[in-house]
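Lecture 7, part 2: worked example. A protein chain together with thymidine-5'-phosphate.
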Amino acid sequence: MSLIVLEGLDGSGKGTQAQLLYEALSARYGRVRKITFPDYGSPSSALVKMYLNGDFGKNPEEVNAYAASAFYAVDRYASFQIDWKADYEGGVPILADRYTTSNMIYQLGKLPRTEWENYLSWAQDFEYDKLGLPRPDLVLFLDMPVEVSQALLLGRYHGDEEKKDIHESDLAFLRDCAQTARFAAQRLHWHVIPCSENGVPLEREKIHQSVLSELEELL
Ligand SMILES: Cc1cn([C@H]2C[C@H](O)[C@@H](COP(=O)(O)O)O2)c(=O)[nH]c1=O
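Predicted complex, written out as structure tokens:
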């Protein structure tokens, strides 16, 4: 049974890398499940959508880190129970585009440094031990600097700032998240994939090859 997680800040090219990795794993194993969080297509993501839309506050920091973490966790619980538990338990490899690990970047980013250790313990206990979600076997973190990812995001929305969610539109918050990502990666032994050189994004094929070589250990 394996659960591989691909993580990265908004605009890090994660969606593209998830698709390339999915194709590579499928070619090797046949049946592979790709899951994506938040699970926007499911009603279980309702509170996440309200949060990202700014219904609880226009700035991410206005929404309690633990409350927002619970919105995402419940969405994952529903997805696991309804959609991929049987496959996971049946040994089908699962590739997750974001997972519990996203809370450990974005929600952790709202808390003072002195609370980071406690939050990581709480998040793991809540989602894995209490809710029963599976622990990842491997987490790959795409390390794309915020300045570079912002330029990529602008391309995605064709310069239309209004389309960004409350995380994407808050540059200071994303910068904090880059720091918490480094902290979580180190504490939880995530594999960090460098995605830029001198402020320029690396070719997607080059990043894909780094992803594959990190995976070799597990496969
Ligand atoms: C899955 C997940 C996403 N997020 C954040 C990351 C993104 O800024 C935002 C929406 O994700 P997306 O940009 O991949 O659609 O939600 C969390 O804070 N916790 C989570 O558990």
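The chain has a mean pLDDT of 94. Residues 3-218 form a domain with the Rossmann fold fold (CATH 3.40.50.300). Keep this in mind for problem set question 3.
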